[in-house]
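Reviewer 2 asked us to include a model.

Predict the structure of this chain.
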Amino acid sequence: VVRPSFRPFKYPGRVIRTRAGFEKYSNLADPKDGSESQSRMIRTRSQPGSVSTLIEENDAP
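Predicted model (structure tokens):
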């Protein structure tokens, strides 16, 4: 469990610890209106041990 005071990212979501470091799963889409399935995931690769982000962007206009 990640403490509320520990926020190395600008976007809300889950932070998962992996061998490559921290991977951020940010849910920017609203799952209540079903737009989450229409989201486009963009992964920013980084060096091992550094921070990489996975951001969901809604493709809807």
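The two ends are 35 Å apart (CA to CA). Residues 13-58 form one domain. We have added this to the supplementary material.
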